[in-house]
Amino acid sequence: MAGSARTNGRRTWRRQLHWFYDIAWFYDIAWFYGIAWLYDIAVVNTPRRHVMSPDVTDGKDRIMEFRDRKALVTGGATGIGFATARLLAREGAEVVIAGRSEEAGAKAAAALGEYGGRARFLQADLRDPESVRRLVEEASDMDVLVNNAGAFPFAPTAEQGLDAFQQLFETNVRGPFFLTAALAQKMAARGGGSIVNVTTIAAQRGIPGTAAYGSTKAAVESLTRTWAVEFGGLGVRVNAVAPGHTRTQNVSSMIGEESFERIGAEVPLGRLAAPEEIAEAILFLASSRASYVTGTVLTVDGGAVALT
Ligand SMILES: NC(=O)c1ccc[n+]([C@@H]2O[C@H](COP(=O)([O-])OP(=O)(O)OC[C@H]3O[C@@H](n4cnc5c(N)ncnc54)[C@H](OP(=O)(O)O)[C@@H]3O)[C@@H](O)[C@H]2O)c1
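That is the input. Now the predicted structure with NAP docked in place:
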């Protein structure tokens, strides 16, 4: 039976509404896929070096951001220093590594040579002011300085020996102090540069046995802020990286491999750091990606400080 004019009118109106819903649904889907496609292009397929784990920073994703730059890494023959020198060389930098051991230095420089042969070793002892002066002369045209070399003879305060105390302050504070004082001026004269100091979470936490060591690195964190202010107007940025427990040969054998792994298991990320993970943070601060960052301490510790 035919409906009234009023009922037919309502049906026609509903049919039209149905068309509207069909079209709106289609647009919803189109929007969804459009946004997902844009997200895929903009985020998923964009190389994100800074979030990659160190084992995937191979030749494919290097972007040569240190091409035409010269970098000095103290203590660059081993551990965190070597990992940093390797990443810098891979990114196109001409790298100078400094340290006391000629043998370790020559071996490391040869290994770095595989990234274009622009690496050399300079023998230098940071405890010796004359040696620091020579290093400044021989590496006078650096764009990047990584103050990484460090001594870490740990001891409870009551058992701290005077010699080890002096070794700590001469290597970790006095040497880098006068090296930086000279090289920052030279960087400024060449138009600017970037300095990264390597400190430790022991400068921020109370860790038994690290009183003298931690205080040398706390001094370096203080210097980082003062230098950032003193040298900022000269175009020289100064920052620090504070590593947590990092699996380097010398520290592992000093603490004992098993005990060190146990310490690593207790931090929120549940493991020790690889030297390359610290090096990535150093590279970021040294690079122009951190062009507005100065006077800061970047803690790279798997969450250890956050836990306390
Ligand atoms: N591994 C960790 O868990 C950890 C944690 C926090 C902070 N850090 C810091 O990270 C930095 C690197 O340590 P690492 O773990 O990589 O240990 P590492 O392999 O022993 O590195 C220390 C480097 O410093 C050099 N060095 C020591 N005394 C020197 C001196 N008087 N003059 C010149 N160079 C000297 C050593 O080379 P030569 O012996 O040939 O001179 C060595 O290459 C240190 O500053 C350390 O305090 C390490």
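Residues 8-43 form one domain.
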